[in-house]
Amino acid sequence: QVQLQESGGGSVQAGGSLRLSCAASGYTYSIYYMGWFRQAPGKEREEVATIYTDGGVTYYADSVKGRFTVSQDNAKNTLYLQMNSLKPEDTAMYYCAANRNYWGQGTQVTVSS
Hints:
The chain is mainly β. It contains no helices and eleven strands. The strands form two sheets. Strands 2, 4, 5, 6, 9, 10 and 11 form a seven-stranded mixed beta sheet that branches. Strands 1-3-8-7 form a four-stranded antiparallel beta sheet, with no helix packed on it. It is globular.
């Protein structure tokens, strides 16, 4: 089992920045893929940014390219999402996932105009 705990969400004005963190615990040696997803009210869950833990491949949704950066600290078993130039449409619950099998509880990001 893998447990994931997100932190770093909050409220910010448009143009601001936030950094989300996702701390993994448990059988972390089994993790080969981690990512950030988000879900806004009334919308489907969206893949935002993902990374393979060997550092080889990253993915960004078109809507966040150039503004968001996903990174990892393998020594700390922690995944990060640096979000810059935030827009009101980035408002959502952000979830951390590992291997698409394990999910965190989510952290709310609210961007006001």
